[in-house]
Amino acid sequence: MKSMRARQQEAQATHGKIRQFANGLEDQSYAGKIRNAAGAILHGHYPPKGQKFCYPAQLKDSDSVIQAANAVSLDRQFLDFRIQWGIADIITSAQMREWFSIHRYGIQDLDDTNQIRDIMTQASVDYKSLAHDASVQKLSKIKYRNGLREAIYNLADELAEC
Questions:
Q1: Which pLDDT belongs to residue 112?
Q2: Cα angle vertex 100, ends 72, 88, to 5°?
């Protein structure tokens, strides 16, 4: 039986091969989903606890695994972001996913309906106590608002690249 360390090294190597494969795909949107899914599986976010997963996955099942693991990866990323910035009570991961789906890389297109402004207004009241990131808590109100706007666009651009 293989040691835990040997299995982790194998998993890392497989993850690298999957990322390399995805990087070579023409459809970079789908490649991003593959990379996200591989990361979610590697870090233990997929499959969810209690859900059975047969290894190795069969090719006929791969698309559903990629879609499900990608969704878990995005939800985790959104949750981590919301907790870091203290906006977990203001916007849900599902709302962020829908909101970011219209974003085009490098374009300041997320505040057309004042969503960022509304989030910043609500968040700037309690961010010092709700944000889990100490560096965010230390920001002045104006630096927090500017930093949150920049962080939202950085995340949206990162996801638009995928």
A1: 81
A2: 65
Question: Highest-confidence range of 56-60, 96-100, 140-144, by mean pLDDT?
Answer: 140-144
Closest CA to 145 of 110, 118, 108, 112: 118
**pLDDT tens digits, residue range 46-66?**
666 656 655 555 556 677 777
Q: Six-digit token pair at 138? A: 């230390």
* Among 63, 60, 56, 19, CA closest to 38: 19
Give the integer Cα–Cα distance in Å for 103 and 105. Answer: 6
For residues 130 and 110, what is the distance between their CA atoms, to the nearest angstrom? 23
Domain coverage including residue 7: 1-76
**Residue 55 sits in the same domain as residue 92:** no
Q: Which two tokens stand for residue 20?
A: 């390399």
Query: Distance between alpha carbon 29 and the CA centroid of its chain, in Å?
Result: 14
- Residue 111: name the closest of 103, 155, 82, 79 by CA: 103
Please identify, among 76, 97, 119, the residue that sits at the C-terminal boundary of a domain: 76
Q: Hey, what amino acid is at 111?
A: D
Number of domains in the chain: 2
The pLDDT tens digits of the residues spanning 69-80 come to: 777 778 888 999
